[in-house]
Give the backbone structure.
Amino acid sequence: MINNIPKHIAIIMDGNGRWAQAKGKKRTSGHKVGVERAREAVETAVELGVESLTLFAFSSENWNRPKEEVSYLMELFIIALNREVKTLNKHNVKLKFLGDTFAFNQKLQDSIKKAESLTAENSQLRLNIAANYGGRWDIVNAVNGLLADSNHVDKINEDLLASKLSTADLPDLDLLIRTGGETRISNFLIWQAAYAELYFCDTLWPDFDSKELQKAVDEFTRRQRRFGLTGEQVKEPS
Ligand code: FPP
């Protein structure tokens, strides 16, 4: 069975620091180029007709990086958001942050709120930026949400739990990409990745251009997704 274009793609954008260091530059210059590749990934997703693109911009563990790198990233997110929000809006992209964004400084929280409300009614592409996000956090948060509704819930099932995850209103995750040579999920969308196709490549994120994304999508369309069935069961009738 040939797959169609994935409805929902998520990307772990890894390798900025190594890319910069290999060029004898500071790690932060890799992040700066990384933002340009994120922009390119959004443009490509729009061109391909993808419904939802989720980018892992900052994990709950990234706070442990050197202080200067964390501050640089915060400043970069503010600048990128403020610079891109009008263009996103013009292209009918709905921007949403996934994660515990209350931990960010006020300036970044304000930029996030502004960007989310400006683009709230858009429908061409859902662009989700996972920031201070962790998959276990997402699940615990969902369970706490259900407990808070405990008057109405006496037994949890998968649909109920999924309805409280940060991705509740998004299509199922079809394709999870990780650049930079590591073959781990690193606590990203762990519930949502249950049936996703995984794509790992050695390309460092600042080199992951639209051709590379197209390559990943092409591979997805060639893979057979069985969802627990046998190969024969999922074959298209001849
Ligand atoms: C991974 O490279 C990147 C990050 C930890 C986060 C920063 C991501 C960007 C700046 C890309 C654009 C983001 C958006 C959506 C605004 P790394 O530092 O882990 O690289 P390394 O593995 O080589 O050290």
